[in-house]
Structure formats: structure tokens, C-alpha cells
Design a protein that fits this description.
This protein has 15 helices and eight strands. The chain is of the alpha/beta class and 296 residues long.
Amino acid sequence: MADFRLDQAAGLRRLFDCRRLRIVTFASGTPGVGKTTLVANVAIALARQGLEVLVVDENGGARHLGAFFGMASNGDLLQVVNRTLHLEDVLFSPAPGVQVLPAGRAARRLTCLNNAQQQAMLDGINGLARPVDVILVDSSPGHAHGFSPWGLAAGEAVMVLSGSGASITEAYALIKKVSLALHRRHFRILANRVKSANDGQVIFRNLKKVAAERGIARLEYGGAIPLDNTLKQLGQLCQPIVEALPETPAALALKEFAGRMLTWPGAEYEHGGVEQLVEQLLHSEPGSEYRARMQG
């Protein structure tokens, strides 16, 4: 098993070409806050800075990332794991510098892959044609404990919420669930579709106060994206606002957030810790670490 783990780590080092890899997961406590649209625009904004971006899309049905770009998915990472499809059959590229990996079905199975399936996943990921600078995980809210192993492996977790009371309540509930079940104690709050930056700050301060008083998690301010009906309209036309209308307040805020994201302090896996990513995604004993963290 030790040799297998070393082989996995070596493969991922080749994949990421010794670059400083960033993995950021985007989550929300409730649908309808614009998370997937936000992730799509952040991916495009990062690519326009010359970065290679891989988006791991855990969503299924009408909410998947391909739908935003008007593209149909040809499969799921699970089919790569089962060797019924090659990675290039599943990946699609909606824009230069951006690749999307549909992984909704695989995300629900990562904790119970056998060694052969783990190796198939590694072989598939190593099949990426280009090294990756940033991985964005568009997390599904359907996981029993809040995050999949992809989401848990991310160095940063961004909780996306809107100004509605239900969105704020459910975001806090998800933070509490992931904090208690999976021991993730740090989140960044991104207020989407708010009337003003001040509204975003007020929402953040209230959440931060409650989380600190109850010892749930440490929250940091991620930013605010102003309410802009054009953003939704362009989404219906499969156009990211950062490209179609780059000087609008929402587009400027999204580009600012994408740039600020690159300045966040390095996570543990960025300091010689690619093995940690392997341990999170491709366990030597299927599901053992993830289950242990859920029970811990």
C-alpha cells in the first residue's frame, strides 16, 4: 500500500508540474444563490489571467456547470474510474484555459473505491493534457455530511450565500455540519446578489459573531458581488458577465474576487503536501480516512 501511495503522489506531481496548486471549493447551504454562475465566471476570470483552471463539477441535473455554458456532458468521472470512458471523453472546455470535469456521480463514490478504481482515477487524472494551476470545486449540497472528499481536500472553502434570511440560516447550518462532522474550521464568506458591499459586510459580521460565540468555525470575509439582473440574463444566454460586460459592477467584483483568491495564504498541501491530496481523494484503504473524520 505504501508503494501505491508513493506512485499516486508522483503521478500528481507530474500532473501539476511542480506549480503552486490551489484548490478552492465553493459551497452553499441552499440552491438558488448563484453559486454555479459565480464559479463559472471566476473560472473565466482566472483563465484570462493566463492560468489553467480545472472545475470539478459535482452537480447533476439542470444545475450542472455545462448547462451554464450551453454544453452537454458526455459522462462522469465515475465512468473513468470504472474504465468505461477515457478522461478526454468526459472533460469539456467551454473557454480557453478552462476545463470542466463532471464528477457528480463519482463524488458520491469516492469513499468506497477499491484499489483498481483508485488506480483508474489516477491514470485518468494523469491524462490531462495540460498542467493545472487552480482547481475549483463546485460542490453539491447533496452530501450527507456537507462536503465530498473533493471539497474536503480543498485548501480553501468559500461559503456562497445571498442576502435572504433562508440563505444565511442554511449557510450557517452547513458550516456547523461540516465543522463538527469533518473538522473543517475555516471558511470564507462570499455574499452574492447583495444590494451593496456594506450589506455583505453586515451579513458576514453577524455570521462571524455567532460562529465565534458557539465555537463552530473561524470565518473570514471573502467579498461581495452586487445584485445585477444582467448577470442572470447573460447566464440564460450562456455568457459569463466577466467577458460579455467586463466593466459592470458585478463583473468587476467577480474579477477582483478571483484575483484576491490567488493571494490567500498557502494551504498545507501547497507546502510539499501533494500526498495529502492523494490521501483525501485516493485512500489506501477505501473510505477509511473520510469515514474516520466524519465520526471524529
